[in-house]
Structures are given as structure tokens and as C-alpha cells.
Amino acid sequence: MPLLSSLTDRVDPKRIYLGSVALTAVAFAGFAWAANGFWSALAFRALMGAGWAGSYMPGLKALSDAAEGPQQSRAVAAHAAAVGVSGALSFGVAGAVNAWLGWQWALVPGALGAASAFVFVLIALPARPVRAAAGPRGGLLDFRPILRNRSALAYSVAYCVHTWEMSALRGWVVTFLTFAAARTPGAWTPLAPATVASVMGLVGVWASVWGNELAIRFGRRRFILGTMLTSGALAAGVGFSAALPYAGVAALILLYAMLIWSDSSSLTAGSAGSAEPGRRGATLAVHSTLGYAGGFLGPLALGATLDLFGGASVLGWGMAFGHVTLALLLGALVFIWLRPADLAGDRSVTAAAATAPFSSPR
């Protein structure tokens, strides 16, 4: 991901995106029909990951290059919504095809989706000249100018703890809800744990889109910081809610998911909008690398904390989710210290420009 995202500052991101989704289509088809053992399956799975790395952020870079101001953050939100909806639907589609035709055919929709994306972008997205960065061009993986950009770095650090929290919930929500349901045998469960997880993903998409609109209206820094602190407060108690009836636990999980997802696209839009000219690809490379690092560590930290406090119990789950509160508080402190800027088009920036004194002509 750092390599391919950074490369979009030197090469038209359309070319990287096309090559990556073509690789994704081949990898899905190869996993289904050519893999014949663990190592060949692992190789095709690795190609799927490489294809995703070269399509998600490079695709977002191509999209953000085509929009400026408030439309840029809305484009980022739409991109996140499309990924969220397709990700939620993919489980149902794969499950249905698997039941009808078997597991190999269940991978075909993934290959067809990537192939369709190739055709759409090839036809509809115009090629764009690469905008060179100011000053001497550094190495491809020289991220020092990005790390000196305090505003973009603030949004990326906040994105790291955001994905830490989001991945921890996604990785453990079914197990947690199963534990809560088992505490009251025979209780009416309107939504099974796996179904709640699917609904959670769709609710999160809605929250992400509207969260970006709230960030535009009330100021991005204020909205993100308020969301982090509110989500952290809820994380401190959500694990202990396993003592409640199952329906109450499920409702609290959906509320918690809305809070988590609400600043998702706002953070990515903040990082993209804060990038220096000619360095947006490298900025998104740092942003996504920090984000996926948090997404990798979050579920591990929750599981380790659960083990530390004796495994599945109300106390164990309470402390396991409570560790997220500490991560969010630390991220909020770094976010405040770095003092990120709001984006052009955010209400706070517009209001400040409107109230600034006019300079007299010379």
C-alpha cells in the first residue's frame, strides 16, 4: 500500500487502479479454479490483498483529484459508502451463491465485480496529468514531508485509533453477542448475532455519510474530537452491557457502531484535503498504513485483554472493550496537540473567511 499509493504522485492513478483491479479479478478466479493446495491458495490470496492495496487508496486519490472544496469531502464519503455497502452485501451474495452452486462459484462475483470496475474506470474516468510537488522531488518512499504536515498527520493518527476501535468491534461483535444471548437461554432474540453484525455495517455506512455532512456544518476538528470522546465513553461501558437482556445489548451495539463509523469518511477527507499539492498520494499512503496498522492491532488487543481478565465474563468483556477507551483518549490527545486545520468548505472555515476584515486596496 505505501508503494502503490505513493506512486500515484508520479503516475496517473487511473493506470495503477486499472492494473490493480485486473490483478484482483485474476486472483479471485485463480483462487477458485487454479489453487490446489495451501501454498497456491495463499499466493492467490496475497494477490487479492495486493489488488485491494492498489485499488482502494489509489482509487480514492483519483476521485479526490477530480473534486475540490466541500465536494471533495463528499466524494470521499460516497467512496467510503460504496465500499461499506458492497462489503456488507458481499457476505450475503457469497453465501447465496455458495448454497446454490458451491464455494468456487461463490468467488465469481468478486472476479466479476473487479472486472466491471476495470471497464467502468477505463471508459468513464479521464486520464489526468500528474501534478508535481513543489520543491525537489524526494524518494518514492520518503515520507518525511508527510510527517511534517501536522494537519494531515493529525487526521491519520486519529484514523489509526478509529480503525483500531472499528476492527476490534467487527472482529469480536458476533462472539460478544453470542455470549450475551447465552446468558439468558430461551430469551427472544429478534436479531441473531451475525445478522446484527450485518445491520451494523449498513448502519455504519449511513452514519459515515451523514457524519461528513455534520463535519462540514459544525467544523471537522470539533466533530471528530467530540465523536472520539463520546465513542470512548460508550466503549467503557458497552462490554459490561452483557449483563442486560439481549435486545438491549444488540441496540447498544448498533448505537456504538453508529458513533464509530460517523467520523470514518471525515477523517480520510481531512487527510486528503490537508495534503500538500503533488503529495496527496504519499499522504494517503501514510494515512492508510497507519489505519490498517490500527485495524490489525485492535482485535488482537481486545482478545489479549479478554484473556488477561479471565476470558468470557461480564467483567472480562467490560475490560476488553474498555481498553479501546484508553486508545481513543491517547489518540484524542495527539489530535489536539497536532492542531489539524478544517477544510475549505467546512462551515468553520467559511464563517472565519466571512468575518475577516477586508483589506483596503493599495
Order of helices and strands: HHHHHHHHHHHHHHHH
Poorly predicted spans: 358-362
Number of domains: 2
Computed structural class? mainly alpha
Can you give the helix content as a percent range? over 70%
The proportion of strand residues reads under 5%
Extended strand count:
0
The DSSP helix count reads 16
**What's the CATH topology label of the largest domain?**
Growth Hormone, Chain: A
Instruction: Specify Rg, calculated over alpha carbons.
Output: 22 Å
Average pLDDT over all residues: 86
Assigned CATH class of the largest domain:
Mainly Alpha
Largest β-sheet summary: none
Beginning-to-end CA distance, first to last residue: 50 Å
Assigned CATH architecture of the largest domain = Up-down Bundle
Note the overall shape: globular
| CATH homology group of the largest domain | MFS general substrate transporter like domains
Keywords for this structure?
0% strand; Growth Hormone, Chain: A; single chain; mainly alpha
Detailed description of the structure:
The structure is a single chain. This protein is mainly alpha-helical and 362 residues long. The protein folds into 2 domains: 2-122; 144-348, Growth Hormone, Chain: A. 77% of the residues lie in helices and 0% in strands. It has 16 helices and no strands. The protein has helices at residues 2-7, 13-33, 38-53, 56-65, 70-101, 103-106, 108-124, 144-147, 150-182, 193-218, 220-238, 246-262, 264-274, 280-308, 314-338, 347-355. Helix 5 crosses helix 13, helix 9 (150-182) packs antiparallel against helix 15 and helix 13 runs antiparallel to helix 14. It is globular. It starts with a helix and ends in a 7-residue tail after the last helix. Residues 358-362 have low confidence and may be disordered.
